[in-house]
Structure formats: C-alpha cells, structure tokens
Write a structure and sequence with these properties.
Elements: E1 9-15, H1 18-33, E2 37-38, E3 47-52, H2 57-69, H3 75-85, H4 87-96, E4 100-104, H5 106-118, E5 124-126, H6 134-144, E6 148-150, E7 171-175, E8 177-178, H7 189-193, E9 197-198, H8 201-213, E10 218-222, H9 237-245, E11 252-256, H10 265-273, E12 280-282, H11 290-295, H12 302-315, E13 319-326, H13 333-346, E14 350-355, H14 373-392
Parallel strand pairs: 1-2, 1-3, 3-4, 4-5, 5-6, 7-10, 10-11, 12-13, 13-14
Antiparallel strand pairs: 8-9
The protein binds iron/sulfur cluster.
Length: 393
Amino acid sequence: MQNSNSGKKVCIRTFGCQMNVRDSEALLGLFLEKGYKSADNPKDADVILLNTCAVRAHAEHRVRSILGSYKKLSAFSRQSSASKKNKAESRKLRADSCKIIGLIGCMAANSGKEIFERMPHVNLIVSPAKLHKIPAYIEKIKKENIRIIDLEDKEREEDFYNASYRVKPGYAQVVISTGCSNYCSYCVVPSVRGELRLRKPKDIIAEVKRNVSLGIKKITLLGQNVNDYRDKQGVNFVDLLKMVEELDGVEEIDFLTPHPKNTTKELFKLMAKSKKIRKYLHLPYQSGSDKILRLMHRGYTKKEYLALVDDYKTIVGGTIGTDIIVGFPTETEEDFLHTKDILEKVRFMGAYIFKYSPRPGTHAQKLKDDVPQRVKEKRHAELLELQKKISNA
Ligand code: SF4
C-alpha cells in the first residue's frame, strides 16, 4: 500500500550547535519513516522547518529575516489575500497545497509567541522538548487548516531517537541529556531547553547498539555539560563513557561539551587509558578575567582553568579547543588581556570566538551592555588573528 505521504517533501534548515544538528537529524528520520522525502531547497518542500539556536542574537535576526522571506511561499498567506478577491480560489488553494512553515527549537521557545502573533504565515511553532510531536502536528494542520503553537517544557519521548537515518555514514551523535541547570549568566539554554534532564543509561546504550547494528563505528555523546551526568543510581559521565567503550563494534568515541568547573582527573585518566576515546577536549573558557568569570557565573578562575589544562596535557597529552566571549559587560582592556593570555598560553587547536550580545531571560541581560561595539569588534578581530597564527604554526 502506498504511504499517504509519499511524494511529500520536508526541508529542515538548522542553525546553531551540535545539539540542534542532532535534533534535526532525528526529526528528519521520523519524517523519512513516514514516507516523506528530504528537500534541500525550501521551494521544493511542502513542509519547511527552521530549527534555530537562540544563543546568539545574530542567528536570531537572520532567521527572522528568512521567515519573513517565506511569506511568499506560504499557502496560508496566499489564502488570506486570495479570500479577499475570490473565495473559490481560496478554497482551491486550501485543498491543493499546504506549504507548512515552522519555527522549532530554542528560538521557538524564546520568541515563538511573538512570532506566532506577528507572522501569520508561520503556522507551526514547537519548543525543543516537543519536537517528537511535529509529524503529528503537520497532519493536524493539513487536515484542519489550523495553526499550532506548542511551547511546553517537558521530558522528551524516547521514540524521538528511534529513527535509523544518519546524515554522515558511519557516524552518530547520541544525546545523553537535554537542558542545563548551570545558569551561566549570559546563556539562554536553561530558559529555552529547560532544566537538566538525563536520558537513562539503558536507553543511551540501546541507541548506541542500534547504531552499531547499522554499521556505525564512531559515536559522539552530546550534552550541554556532559560532566553534569549523574543518575539516581550514581552513574556519572565517566561511568557512561566506560559503558559505551565496552561495547563491541564501537571504535571511536568523542564527547561534547565538558564544563571546566566539573571536569575531573578521573575523566582524563580514562581518556589516557582508552584506545577508543578520542584524545581531544573541547573546554570552553569564555574569559580569562576572574572578575568576568564571576559575573558569568562560570565557577572557576583563570588559575584553576590553566591548572586543569596542565592536568589534561600531562595525563592525556591530546589536543584541545575552546569557546571565548569578548565584550561581556564591564570588560576592560586588562580583563581582555587575561583572555588573550590564556589563548597564548594554552595554544588551542581551534577556538570559537564570539562578541557578547545580551539575550532575553538571562541574568546578564540585567547588566549594562557597556562595551562599545567597535571595541568588541577590535578584540574579536585580535583574538581571531592570534588564533589563526597559533592554528597555522
Ligand atoms: S553550561 Fe552554561 S553555557 Fe553551557 S549550556 Fe549550561 S548555562 Fe549555557
């Protein structure tokens, strides 16, 4: 029997972190199993979904403008303008075509209500916790010609991770936890993805085994802060890594992202001993100034960060990468020089360097954004240039 969705196409555009990349992959897998095909070009798709990060203001502005540009593709907006002229044409459009345009993920949680009101052609808005509901919502929109907004923050259903589709052959990302309860003062994740929620070790291991049965040998374990993993039975992140490492068929393991405040020597010792865990650590330091680190609620000092890097280099001897924010409120030239000093001392393999922008709902938003834009740009360019030299050395 032919699937009623055969011939339908979905285009999912992803902006942001690896967690979003994995969420889009899992969601696309659900659509493919329902008979949809994947479309690269939104114009070819019946369903267009933007899975968007809310961490940077820049990404959010870009997505607002893309959403605006989709108005001309939307059957909903064509219906409303057609209905003024010709009711029969409007009915025909409704029956023939339903271009569904959705905003999903962190930006939906952050600005979904406002976008739902301001952009009537956007007919689906769903928070990160409810992504598993999207295929069912699409069917409902098609049948009932309605708009749906679901911003509930709730435990994600395990079924979301069941589809076998993988973007890169031989490689799989496995989510170990969602949300975050660290509340770094600049970060919107706890408010858009909710408090930390752990997947059960048995579900994580079952997903890794499913990947192995598909011939996948490389696994990345994903969490906003993987070191926060500790279930009610006391299984922590290092235990989880050991469990994945013991599985036959897994050949390479990676993880993203550890937080410096609770990265342990126990983790380094396992990395050093393991033949499967990649000897690479992505360890965001964000700032080298103790004053700024305090304002960011990061829970470590410059000295502690550098000592941790020393431990890593001594015990594991692998490579290291990082994230940095310049221009956080009150950042002086002296604060910036401390940040630059860490970059010079550690000699990272790579660094993601960002200019601070205040995000709604964060603690830092209450601070005056007092570093002038031109100063942020100068510091940003200076660090980029320095990192380029280090990476090319
Ligand atoms: S650890 Fe901090 S920066 Fe990372 S997701 Fe949690 S709150 Fe955001």
